[in-house]
Design a protein that fits this description.
alpha+beta; Jelly Rolls; five-stranded antiparallel sheet; three-stranded antiparallel sheet; 3 helices; 10 strands; 18% helix; 35% strand
């Protein structure tokens, strides 16, 4: 049962899935049901601190990370009405809703990337995710996140590498800029 699935069991399963460096899409397909199982577990819920950094609008609680920053597992707590600017991850990821809803907006970069610090984005789609819903993120995906609710929402994030060690970027569609981006972790 999902209720008895522990973080350690998930980490062991994740290490097994990642062994041998399978194709990203194959890994994400196999990871999804395990991530959903962890997101529904009592063990995960008992570990959540739900603390948010008011300056960035969310909290990033690292639950596990390998010594080389690979296979990072985190819980993100989102302040009501807050979220992130468009960004990429620079690695594969899986996000599963735990508490409350979150809206993911997906973007496409339309310029050729040849001008440093410059980027043009076009909004592609938007999708609301509820607890238990999962999204697979490949390294090239650009998305933004927003908590539309009146309470803190929480989502489980699994990454091939801790996002602060991937060289990822944040985008400002209005000003057409792209800059490196790391987040405060608690």
């Amino acid at each position: 049962m999902a209720e008895t699935y522990s973080l350690q069991q998930f980490i062991d399963d994740l290490r097994g899935l990642a062994a041998g460096n399978p194709a990203t899409r194959d890994l994400l397909v196999r990871l999804k049901p395990l991530a959903q199982k962890l997101a529904a577990s009592a063990d995960l819920r008992a570990r959540l601190n739900r603390e948010c950094d008011p300056a960035q609008g969310f909290g990033f609680q690292v639950l596990h990370e390998e010594a080389d920053h690979a296979l990072a597992v985190a819980a993100l707590a989102w302040l009501p009405g807050r979220g992130t600017p468009p960004h990429d991850h620079g690695t594969w990821g899986m996000v599963v809703g735990v508490e409350g809803d979150e809206v993911n907006t997906f973007w496409q970069r339309t310029d050729d990337g040849s001008r440093a610090g410059y980027a043009e984005l076009r909004k592609l789609s938007e999708k609301k995710f509820a607890p238990g819903d999962a999204i697979a993120i490949t390294p090239e995906i650009i998305h933004s996140v927003h908590n539309p609710g009146e309470r803190i929402s929480v989502s489980l994030h699994i990454y091939g590498r801790n996002i602060n060690f991937t060289g990822r970027s944040r985008y400002d569609p209005e000003n057409r800029t792209v800059t490196p981006w790391t987040v405060v972790q608690n």
